Structures are given as C-alpha cells and as structure tokens.
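All the exercises in this workshop are built on plain-text protein records. The record below serves as our worked example for the rest of this section.
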Amino acid sequence: MSFNFQLMKNILIFLFLISQTAIGQRLTKSDKVIIDNLKAEITYLASDKLEGRRTGTPGEKLAYEYLSDQFGKTGLVPKGDNNSFIQAFEINEGKEILPTTHLIINGDSLQGGKDFFPFIFSSKGVIKADASPAFQEKGMPWFFDIKESLEKNKNNPHFDLVDAIREKVLNFEKKGASACIVFNSGKMEDDLKFDGKSKISAINIPVVFVTKDATRKYLSDPSANLNIDIQTELGDKKRTGHNVIGYIDNGASHTIIVGAHYDHLGYGEDHNTLWTGKPEIFNGADDNASGTALVLELAKIMKKSKLKKNNYLFTCFSGEELGLLGSKYFTENPTISLEAVDYMINCDMVGRLNDSTHALTIGGYGTSPEWGKILPEPSKALNVRFDSSGVGPSDQTSFYLKNIPVLFFFTGIHADYHKPTDDVDKINFEGEFRVLLYIENILKQTNNNEKLAFSKTREPKMEGANFTVSLGFMPDYSYSGVGVRADGIIDGKIAQKIGMQAGDIIIQLGDFKVTDIYNYMDALSKFKKGDATKLTVMRGKEQKNFDVVF
C-alpha cells in the first residue's frame, strides 16, 4: 500500500524522543479498581469471541453491544440514533456480482468465479444469441482473445491489461457489438480477477471473462457456432459500521469529546495488516481495545466528578481501520452541535507504555495556543513528547478538519502492531492508568476555562514513504467515487497555493489517470522536488486544470 494508515502509524515512532525517568508512585485502592476495570474491559474486547472486531461483522456487534451496556450502566445519556447509543453508518466497498449473473454456452452453465466473471466496467444486460468467435456481426456478442495484447506488451511496465480490454471493447460497442466475451488462448498468465473496488468507468454492454479451463472447453474452435446466454448484474457492496455515543449533560454551554476507535482487523480480510502468515484473529488489544477501555473508565470518572462546567461526550468509533470512516461520519452527522465542542481527545494505542522509557506522544499540541498553558507537566511516570500536528492516522483528524482543537494520545509502535500477536498479555495496565490520570488532569484544568481557540498546524512529515513530494491536502477516505477527493487543504502547501479547495476531486496528475488513493500515490512517487506538471480536478461538474511545481 503506497499510502495508508499503517504507514502513518508507523511514522509516529519517529516523532518522539526517548529518555529515562523514575516511576515510583504508590497505587491506592481506588486506583487498583480502575486498573482491574481496564484489564477486564480489554480482556473482553480483545478476546477471540469478538473475532477481531472488524467493522460490520458479528464481532463488531458483540463489541458495540458491550460498549452500549457499559455506557448505560455508567448512566450516560444515549446520543446515537433513535434515542440509542448506536449511530449506524454505511460503508460502500465498491461492487459485487449479483446472483442473477450467469453465462450459459451450448446449454452448459458456467460456474461464476471459477469459469467466468464479469468485468467491473460491464453494464447490466441480458443477451441471448448464436454467435461465433470468428465473426463480428452487429447486434451480436463479439469475442476478444487477449493473447496478442499480452505478448505484445510483455516488456511494457506501464501496460494496464484491464484498461486495454476496456478500450478494445468500447471500440467493439461503437461498431455494434451487443456484448463481449473475453478470453486468453495463449500461454502467458493474465492474472485477471473481478475487482469490485476498481473505479474504472462502466461501458454500455455486458462484458465477461472466460477462464483458461472454460476457454479450452468452449472457445478452442474459432469457427464454432455457440449458443450464448449472458446475464450480468453488479450491485453496490456495502456493510454497516456502528459508532457508540454517550453523553453527560451538565447543562453547560460547551462540550468536551473523549473518543477512541474500537474496531480492528478481524481475520485480516481488508488486507490492511502487517502479517504474512496464515489467517488468524487479530485481537487488537493495544489497537485499540486499550483506548476504548480508557474511554469507558474516563466516562465513569466524569460521571461521578464534581466538574460540571462542561458537558462530556464519550465516543467509540468503528471504521477507523478502513480510513477514519466512523469519526468522519460523526463529524458530518453530529448528534450534538459541533459549534459547542470545546476540544476533542483521542486515545489510540495507549496500552504499551514502555517500562524503561515511559514515552508518551501527545499529538495536536499546536491546534490551540492554549494547550501550552493547560497541559500538565510530565510526571515521574510519563516522559511526554509533544507533536504539534492536528492531522494524523487516527480519529482526531476528523475533528481537526472541522476546526476543533484536538489531542491525540499514543504510547508507541511495537512489534505486534497489526499482527495477531497484539494480545492482552502484553498490555501495561499500570502504564495505561498513568495515561488516564494525565487526561483526567487535562479535564480538570479546563473545567473553568473559556472555549479554546483553534489553530491550524503543519502537515506531518511522511518519513519512509516511496515519494518525496506532496500536494498538501488530506484525502477523504470515505469517498467511493472515481478519483481522490480533498477533505482538507493544508495551509502554505502547494494545493493551497494553486487554488485547490476542499471537495475538489483529483482525476489526473501529469500523464497519470487518478481513480483512487492507491494510483494517486503511485503517480506521486514518480515526481521529485522541482518537477513541473499538470493537475486536473473536478469541482462539482466543472473541470479545473492547475500548473504544479513540486
């Protein structure tokens, strides 16, 4: 993955300095109760029973039911949908092949997936006809053998087979083809498969690919007359994520949000892991059962607290591992007024405080000029490193982009990150408790404060990426259309200087078509500092072109 959340989390390890300090602080009886609670909560959330809490799965359901129950027992007011703690949101995962799709040749039904599949750019259609691979008649299915294209481009690193097939079939359509059957009679492998997440645009006729075995059985004789029955139909592939939201209403004019994501990677089905072994459950004890448990305990503390000059919203987001989808949905569909939000605290991976370094990174230091006056001095138990940026690989970014001051708490990358080995036995519960105390102190410090002023911050440096330049914008990871949509524009960077706006959709960079974030970053990797190129975006229905010098 050229640019993803794994990379962004990985680079955070470069953002803090490590030094030695002494711990030595006696725990009280009530402290031990909180630590025991953290242990019980993380143990449940990171158990095999929840199967990795992947968004939209039964494991996620067990998790959000548990969190809802905890919020209810704490006495929080539901702030989700329909007077519940749950805010549901849809995730569009591209297209899927519907059961009505079929291919019948000479009365034999070919097996979908094994013998054939439609291309993502295929239209919905039903075609019945007698046709021959050797003839191309108007109003009939046409055949396309990709053998020659593969051989001709075997040494061309820029050759895109699917794009070439689409262009060829588009020409067939213009000449009168009613459908197209694509096959490969050659020895070169084609590696073709149905890609439901591809953003390539559709054409107006059904197009199917027949695999090797079926080709040998049905398409080996170009002169044969074949009775063809094709039906293709694709539908939107969606799943539902669920945020969990509870509220303490103190009748105050301002609200503080404390949040964490509770989703994780399931069995690695979304291909966003660092694991190369056999499929296993990714329990995600640190990422992010640890942050979720901290939110639960802070909710209990603030419910009993005498601090009443702010309201408190406690949020557990899903869809973070898919690109901050839950927090973005909440900020676009808030259940309280965002105008009333003072600041947001996000806890992500706060369970692995190192016993020797005690290193804690707090991001977002620069999102308000007041943070320098408010944030407690590091204790003996915490060696705090501040990072100014408001954007990053976790849910605070969604709030920063709404001009809300944020803080991001993170105890560091470790060898178990995004692997099945991120289990509860490796959590430093006393260390997490120290982080909790630090956050509680912030809540105390801001009890009597006016609403914090917001400041924009720098773009984080992307060490370790395979590109050396950037435009300077935050992508909208929830966008499912063609191209890359800008969710926010970074001050002082190229995007702002050339006149890009939030909502612009990048469709071309230089000679490279942009269909999604992956090929955008691949295109970006081809440029270096000083290079000049063209950038094309869609702003509404209007196409705009910009000159770019990196």
Remarks:
- Confidence is low (pLDDT under 50) at residues 1-24, 461-465.
- Residues 99-232 form a domain with the Glucose Oxidase; domain 1 fold (CATH 3.50.30.30).
